[in-house]
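Researcher: Hi, I'm a grad student and pretty new to this. My advisor asked me to get structures for two proteins we've been looking at. I'm not sure of the right format, so I'll just paste the first sequence and hope you can take it from there.
Model: That works fine. Here's the first sequence with its structure tokens right after it:
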Amino acid sequence: IFVTPRKHAKPRVIHPDNTALCERLGELPNLLCVGMTGSGKSFALWVILGCLTLFIPDCKVIICDLKNSSFPQFKALPNYLRNRKIWYLLIDEYSAMLSSLDRKTADEIKGMVGELLQMGRSLGIRLLIGLQRADSEYFKAGARDQFWAVLALGELSKEQKQMLFSEYKDKMN
């Protein structure tokens, strides 16, 4: 999986053999993964999660898989929890989850996610969220700006490039 770890940096390969990059991923408080259906979001989250569990001793992971399609093998386990120091909350298909809820509940979830994005780092909680479009309607005001890393897969619309990579959008092809 190729990523740009810092603004205007050459894309790198995420692989457990790339120790420096995997350790750097572990230092990022939050990660947003966007892309159209079939672009590889779930696979990318799998690889990143694998790297995190390899390079962060005793890390604890919680997986929310609304569609029960990307991470079903963990279903039999009571928790996929390993660490008492850092917790990772992975929500795949976040927008689909919000769309399936009534408005009040969805707003409560957005508020909780916003608080975790803003306060989670100091609490040892980090979010990894996968969704098809990172529209502002899915995040409370300013919460989307709390992602320290954005992994974009496939062809992005002009709007997505502007929302997620405003300073870099003209260099994307």
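Researcher: Oh nice, that was easy. Here's the second one.
Model: And its structure:
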Amino acid sequence: GGTVEVPYLVLQFCPRGSLFRVAGRLSLHDALRAVLQAGAALQRCYERGVLIKHGDLKPENLLVDEVGRVVVTDFQTALRERVTRDAVQGTLGYYAPVPDERADVYALGRVLVDLVAGLDAPVARAPAEVRGLVSAAQNLRMRMREFVEEAERILHRLA
């Protein structure tokens, strides 16, 4: 005879699916725009103290809404406060063992390669214009603001 509380989750409708379905088929311009949108959204989260890192960025967790905007999803492993580096692990290939945003930068570098060269493609198959950016992301010294700024510079040079 009591009240039953049913938990629920509300998500934005993203009819275009995830970036996984277009991996290897995007132009460099479109791939840069996609990672820029995700990176800028995450940067705002870091600045507002919403999270320290997402921790599981991959093409499957980046959805596209009806007008083509990238929506970051699956915050299940997102860190709000620092923990030991092995406490949360993301998806192999996208995971970097660091406790902060550098893990997300690493993952977005990998996503960029996936989008232009195909899933699990070697970095060498990515266009030369972005290999330096991907390399910097993979060395785990780059912060998201730097990643976004460099990706914007590359995008402007392509225009």
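Researcher: Is there anything I should tell my advisor about the second?
Model: You could mention this: The radius of gyration is 16 Å.
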